[in-house]
Specification:
Layout (H helix, E strand, L loop, with lengths): L1 H21 L11 E3 L14 H34 L15 H30 L6 E8 L2 E6 L4 E5 L11 H9 L15 E4 L4 E7 L4 E5 L4 E5 L5 E5 L5 E7 L12 E6 L1 H14 L4
Parallel strand pairs: 1-10, 2-6, 5-11
Antiparallel strand pairs: 2-3, 3-4, 6-9, 7-8, 7-10, 10-11
The structure holds copper (II) ion.
């Protein structure tokens, strides 16, 4: 009995030590500004930080233009039919049921529109799906409710928790913690204690999986969005072209604290990355 108590005490103590190690601050020696973040009352996309995000945003704008034109056209057609062909304006209606030229037109025109959209959307889709040669690989595992980031080539692993996780509202203590980590109160629920750190202008291949339930790895400003499914290894990639801090979110309803597992990515210079990595190898080595 005593031995098992001793054992569990030891296990708890080593767990605490491990947690303290994992939670150790891994600061980046570089002043970074926030680039990819939601804005209050914003309705558009977040600033794009990759060519992929720019492609996706351009595609969205192009399709939105087509949709708007079609909607205006159909609305005007409906108004015209309602005004011109109601029973008062047109008491003796025509009785024809077919009009071949019209039917050919309303088949061919949508086909042309869809082929046009496909010609632009498929290349973007292939660009996302075809994983290029990686400069570095990161494995991301979604847990209830935090992310684990692993750098398999450099044998580094650490967990990333929301700053103030488990707390309902922004308290003075959390505010303090945010400021210490270089954020403001506005980044509450966006900022994580340990960020995913990557070098700028490098192709980062991200392997994504879930440790318990399905999570969603979503970084809007990178054009990256994939489900983190237990038992499966999905791949996405990005090449951030501007240094800064980018925020993402878990995008699959994964339980009670789903909203408390933000993704914080710090895109830094190669030199700052190397320095950070050297420290991370000591602080958070993968066993
Ligand atoms: Cu989740």
């Amino acid at each position: 009995m005593r031995l098992s108590t001793l054992k569990s005490t030891f296990a708890a103590a080593s767990g605490l030590i491990l947690a303290a190690q994992v939670a150790a601050a891994q600061e980046v020696n570089e002043k970074l500004s926030i680039v990819g973040a939601p804005t209050a009352g914003g309705t558009g996309f977040q600033t794009s930080g990759t060519e992929m995000a720019r492609d996706v945003h351009w595609l969205d704008g192009m399709i939105l233009t087509i949709i708007t034109c079609i909607t205006i056209f159909v609305t005007l057609l409906l108004i015209w039919v309602a005004v011109r062909y109601n029973s008062r304006s047109n008491p003796t209606p025509a009785k024809f049921t077919h009009n071949s030229p019209l039917e050919i037109a309303w088949t061919i025109v949508p086909v042309v529109i869809l082929v046009f959209i496909g010609a632009f959307s498929l290349p973007v889709l292939f660009k996302q799906e075809e994983i290029p040669q990686a400069d570095m690989t990161v494995k991301v595992t979604g847990h209830q409710w935090y992310w684990t980031y692993e750098y398999p080539d450099d044998k580094v692993i650490f967990d990333s928790y929301m700053i103030g996780t488990g707390e309902g509202n922004l308290s003075p203590a959390i505010s303090d913690e945010l400021h210490k980590a270089g954020y403001t109160d506005a980044e509450f629920r966006l900022a994580a204690d340990n960020a995913l750190v990557v070098p700028v202008n490098k192709t980062v291949v991200v392997q994504v999986t879930g440790g318990d339930v399905i999570h969603g790895f979503y970084i809007p400003s990178f054009g990256v969005h994939i489900a983190a499914v237990p038992g499966r290894l999905a791949e996405v990639w990005f090449k951030a072209d501007k240094e800064g801090i980018y925020f993402g979110q878990c995008s699959a309803l994964c339980g009670q604290a789903h909203s408390a597992m933000p993704i914080t990515v710090k895109v830094v210079s190669q030199q700052a990355y190397d320095e950070w990595l050297a420290a991370a190898k000591v602080q958070n080595p993968a066993s």
